[in-house]
Amino acid sequence: MTKSTGQLKIINRLHVYRAEHRLTQEQLAKAIGVTRATIVAIEGGGYNPSLELAFRIARFFKTDINAIFSIREESE
Q1: Does the keyword DNA-binding apply (predicted)?
Q2: Has residue 74 got a pLDDT over 60?
Q3: Alpha carbon of 11 to those of 2, 30, 47, 51, 66: distances in Å?
Q4: What is the distance between the alpha carbons of residues 30 and 53, in angstroms, rounded to a whole number?
Q5: Using one digit for the tens of pLDDT, what is the confidence trace for 57-70?
Q6: Who has greater pLDDT, 1 or 28?
Q7: What does the pLDDT average to over 44-49?
Q8: CA of residue 49 relative to chain centroid, distance
Q9: Secondary structure string (H, E, C) spanning 4-65
Q10: Mean pLDDT value of segment 41-67
Q11: Res 24 pLDDT > 90
């Protein structure tokens, strides 16, 4: 087993899914029960959603969570 020394970064495609569905940030926020500020923060990479919220978002778009959120390891 190899030891990882890099940091994990969550990559999200939320803005892509939202745009494809022609939703505003406000519309998406209301549909999943969060504030517009939360959507702005997630899309901007300033906030990583909880696992529960990530699943709620994926369920809303009827897709797999991995289609919207993925993890990448970055070297130090």
Answers
A1: yes
A2: yes
A3: 23, 23, 11, 14, 10
A4: 13
A5: 999 999 999 999 99
A6: 28
A7: 93
A8: 6
A9: CCCEEEEEECHHHHHHHCCCCHHHHHHHHCCCHHHHHHHHHCCCCCCHHHHHHHHHHCCCCH
A10: 96
A11: yes
CB hemisphere CA count around 55 (13 angstroms): 3
Could you say which DSSP state residue 59 is in? H
DSSP assigned state of 44:
H
pLDDT above 80 (res 76)? no
Residues in the chain: 76
| Domains of the chain, start order | 8-63 (1.10.260.40)
| 56 in Cβ contact with 29 (< 8 Å) | no
What does the block give as tokens for 22? Answer: 């022609």
User: Which pLDDT score is estimated for 72?
Assistant: 86
Tokens (6 digits) for 38 = 């939360």
Spatial distance between the Cα atoms of 32 and 21, rounded to a whole number of angstroms: 14
